[in-house]
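Extended Data, record PLD phosphodiesterase domain-containing protein
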Amino acid sequence: MHSSESSPSTPPSKVSSDALEAPLLPLKFDGTTSSPRMSPHRIVRNAVVILLLSGVIVAASWILSTLPDPDSDESEPKELYTPTLTLIETQPLNYTIPKLPTSLETYEYELSLINSAKVDIKITVMYWSLLCQSSSYKTLGCLRGEKIYSAFKSAADRGVKLYFLQDETQNHTQLINLVSSSPNISYRTWNAKNWYSGGIMHQKLWVVDSKNVYLGSSNMDWLSLSQVKELGVGITSSVVGGMAVDLFDDWYTWAGMDVKTVEYFNTEYQVTLTTPCWSHHLLDTSSYCEYPFPKREWSYDRKNQRTLEFNGNSSEFYISRSPFEIAGEDYTADINGIISTIRSAEKTVDISVMDFSPTSEYDDCWFNKIQESLLTVWQGKGVTSRVMVSWWAYSDIDMIKQMRSLVGMSYGGVEVGVYMMPGWNMTNSTDGIPPVGVPVFPGHSRVAHGKFIVTEERVNVGTSNYQWAYFYDTAGTSFNTDHEETVELVQQVFDRDWESEYTFGVEEWWDVYGEEYELVEKVVE
């Protein structure tokens, strides 16, 4: 946690040795000293005064020693470890493009986090699907999920406390079974629909022993470990761990609160919305209530970033939060972190995200803040952008139409690519585009699921798709930094995928697939 730490005790000022020497007394002729005769009462009184003064000096010295030194950073949370920052990737099995040599596998990293745990594990979860549902899935990697599940049990058996924050509306049968296996496993559920008109727990955050952190796109699903492209960051740091624990604890608190909501008319989006009573949208109304989460002495945001030496290189960073009601005044809202990253660019902006659209089937709001930011930096500073979206069995053709429109409005400043994971149309999806031929892969697989931005100087790795609901009523987060090594590596990830045979220019994609999938989507509807 971000507790203030006192500065080292300041030693009291040294008194000159000359001042401590008693005055020389006159010598009597017989060689002894002489002095005025002092009464016993005066001796006692002087002794008491000296003792009192000594006590005051000691007390004052102690008080001063507990105050932070205004000229030092000692009052900030101290880093207790050597901070490390690593990219964490899943490149699906049966896929020809490998991860970066310096990246770690999501499965291996998450397993190592669990196995290394000594005190506690805290994780936010959307849904659970770690176990093999069919023996035929073993060749596709479902045993990776089984090992993660078993590792949770083993951690609990050796005394580690496990805390899960789970979306209430999603499948968590496997979690309930896990909880029943050990008194060391606890969970709470959060239902966005109790607080908003919609939403979900979409944040993917792991914190182990308050020092090891995973933040990224990977779900609690064996598919995220073997059949879906994922990107996240792995961090070892007591400072970052403290921030992540604060975020988890705030969500855990929220999940245990009584529902207090207000309906109001949002003038920006011209719709009536439901929101928690402490929302900043209600600040000037009688419906506003007090922010329910702790106000910490040390919090960091995009205007007050923390500095650490990750992998030996000094860098600034912060963790954003979504929605606004979990961010409050002390933290950066996720959408503001994304926009800030874009607007800070001087040369290039590259974005990879699964869904990116100003409209969606889940809400009635027009939300084009990210598109506007891309156009603004192009018109104002000549910053060029490349946007890579994903196409899979559950994609909306309207997203492609909006991306074509964005390219047209930019007059060459924005390029859009559509990434199609091989096998995307060979899944047994029952609520998306029907498969071609006999299904080979499970539903909700074979897609690029990562969400990140990289500029020439900064990187934002997060959990949110770029649609209105993800920033208004859905739980999400991102890690934002100018760490040079990480910027370079994320740029390599983007370039690798952009230049692959699986990415098509948006107009090229439309010429080949547009009419076909527009018709297919109408049939599915």
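Summary. The chain has a mean pLDDT of 89.
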